[in-house]
Amino acid sequence: MLFLQLLRYQVVLCSGVSVSLCLGFERLEHATTSHGLKLGFISLDCGGKHASIDRNGLQWIPDDSFISGGFVASISVTGETRKHYQTVRYFPADERKYCYTLHVKERTRYLVRATFLYGNFDKSSTYPTFDISLGATYWSTVAISDIDIPKIKELILLAQSSSISVCLSNASTGTPFISTLELRQFNGSMYYTDFETQFFLHVSARINFGASNNDSIRYPDDPYDRIWESDADKRANFLVDVASGTTKIQTNRSIDTARDEYPPEKVMQTAVVGERGLLSYRTDLDGFPGYGWAFSYFAEIEDLGPREARKFKLNLPNVPDYNNLTINVQENAQGSYKLYEPGYANVSLPFVVSFAFVKKRDSSRGPILNALEVNKYVTINFGTQDAAALSSLIALYPSADWALEGGDPCLPVPWTWVRCSSDGQPRVTAILLSGKNLSGQIPLEILNLTALTDLLLDHNSLNGPIPDFSALIKLQRLHLEDNQLKGSLPVSLADLPDLKELYVQNNSLSGSVSHQILDKSLILNYSGNANLIIKGSGRNHVAIIASTIGAFSLLSAVAITVFYVCFWRHSTKEATEKSDTMEIQTATSHISVSEESEDVLKDITIEMTHCFTLAELEVATEGFKKKIGSGGFGPVYYGTTKDGKEVAVKVLSSDSQQGKREFLNEVALMSRIHHRNLVALLGYCQDQGKNILVYEYMHNGTLREHLHGSVSREHPLDWISRLELAEDAAKGIEYLHTGCNPSIIHRDLKSSNILLDNEMRAKVSDFGLSRLAANGTSHISSIVRGTVGYLDPEYYVSQQLTEKSDVYSFGVVLLEMLSGQEAISNESFGVEFRNIVQWARFHIDKGDIQRLIDPALGTNFNIQSVWKIAEKAMLCVQPYGKLRPTMSDVVKEIQEAINIEKEPESSDEEHFDMMSRHSRHSSLISNTLDSIVSDPSLSLDDSIILPSAR
Description:
By secondary structure, this protein is α+β, with helices and mostly antiparallel strands. The protein has 5 domains: 2-188, Galactose-binding domain-like (Jelly Rolls, Sandwich), CATH 2.60.120; 234-374, Jelly Rolls; 387-545, Alpha-Beta Horseshoe (Leucine-rich repeat, LRR (right-handed beta-alpha superhelix)); 604-696, Phosphorylase Kinase, domain 1, CATH 3.30.200; 703-916, Transferase(Phosphotransferase), domain 1 (Orthogonal Bundle).
């Protein structure tokens, strides 16, 4: 209570989200209390139970008033004694997001910082990978790589409203968790940019050069609690390629830093100097490639003689357009011990950046560097167009669990009871509030959701009349059954042109059903309304009128989906209770599986796939006796059907990373596509709670086993075999992209999802995560799914899925085939490179193709075909999708490589020429980079901003 009084916190009801602690800005934002506590700061100890003060004088408070949901775990990390790192709050690895709500002051800039100290709290052998977002805007993917080192994510923003939401959601593996969440208010125009209403700033680097130890500098030395990391930190790839002759210097004299946004004095009192005329570094930039904000900070902290000068020039080897910055610290800063900070407000940078400061000929001293700051522009997603209407809706139910999910209703993933369109600014298309204990009248706020196609309010305690839904012009399914509704059935329902299902049974409706509704081609159930009759008849009626039926949710209309055959076989009683007079068209069903729901897919006609019973599969597999593999779906068993066909039986396990949605997706897609390079789906089973897929049996396992496993050591694939397998797989993906309408994006292409039959032909498998491309759009907005190491970085950042995302993954597979290395391997790549793409790019840029070639290949290959595949693979893994080839281009290049292998061997002179193609490849990469830099569609501005000091 003392802390609350000191900081003048006020407990308020935060509209539509949760009860949160909201800062009262009753004093100057950057004043401190008599206890040294900073106003304008919020420091949440996630999972903590009591307030505490850390060694820097910052107050930490429990987080439970800022979030709904989650679990708490205690951790113990050797050497970590700070109280706010003794607990974590973690969340289920499910399909929803979990959001903190922080109240802020509009039109004010803030730093938001989240930290993640794993500590193996879940005793798992798999490091977690999950997403963090700010409201509707994807912020970053948190990929834990160390048990006892905190992962830090920071974002700078201009608050556009009175609150912000920081949300965690499942991305790939493991359990989302968080250790601390901090909000730091900035002063005045700190970090102002011309783009701040369209972009956040993701903090990628903030470095204190010349530091005497590994300790970071932060509050109270930095009054805004920015963390200035020490350049003495020896983390892998933090700062490497340091030039010889680099020395550290420091001073105790005061430094004139002048402005709030500049580094604090303690940072500027240290520096590095290139005694031999050069300062050079290479480092990873979190979140890049992309456009960013980059500034360096200089102060002359040595006393120069009257004829001495320190002049040097910036050199960015990979970005030559920015190499025109010349620095004379004393002259630019107008004296010694004063800060000067040149930089770029809009600069294109790669993920791994090399930079150097080079002494000029007329300089008597080597270059100096005190500090560096780099932030990446993150495009703000302004979120769901219907957010205001939904906010008004949930404000009616402030204590309901479903109303406390927080964040944007649709992005990055929708609320559990909401379905949304796939637009950049989505619309709400479904409200699923069945059985949510709703009472009172049907909320009129729903009438503002004009993009709704599905409205499910059944099995509640709603009363009063049915409102006029004529504003919901796209409504297709309206379920109001099992409530306490009164009054008549509005004739205006007949005016909804797309309405296909109307369920109002078991209410207290009265009057007559109009002929306009009865004449409409729809499914109508109005039984259980004692006083509701058909006009002109004195008898009560149950009427269900069937036309060609669009797909409805799996829960309420299984009988009319692709699975109706099995459903009728095992659930006849339940179907009979629906109606005595149901007609079903059995020739064709229309299905579609969306990313966000388990709704059966619409607008795609499929051929009915064979439906096995569980008993049939138990006989075929001899009681699921022979396990031949396992994956994200579950275990796979060998079997033989009664007609002698060998099959692979995939059983969805209860703890599977995939679920019924992926099961439905795979059946839906594989039922309609047939190609020699796609593994054939022979049938499925939904029986006794089991979800099973039956595929053709692939005798020779996965491509991964032949490249990396024991099979590769005993019977290594030669180069021509690898090329032929690459051609097979590429043709399979090419068919998905060009032979299907709409096209299909695999989304989880990897070497373990490429299977080999008894003739050693490759076929692509595992379509549980695949998506249908939307006709007429350039991408699908989608939460990131896939496998680390194969994921398209552009999709990772933007959540915009395209066919080029598959191309990136296939590029990784080509690199695996070429090198025999796995996509991610600490043993093979060491601490210098994170994955096969970085490793391969480094060696190919140097022209060292031999370092990439799998030793198992020996010398039985033509170097021309190897270079052709290497170059095509590097184009496939370009950071921007628009720069990658199509799968058709990839197929042609592989076929050309195969032709080269089948031609007579080239002369030694030609062989030497191919080994010397580094200059050609470097030119190719350089031209690619130039096209990125010069492309205005990728830039924040139509031109490159010239270097400037703020």
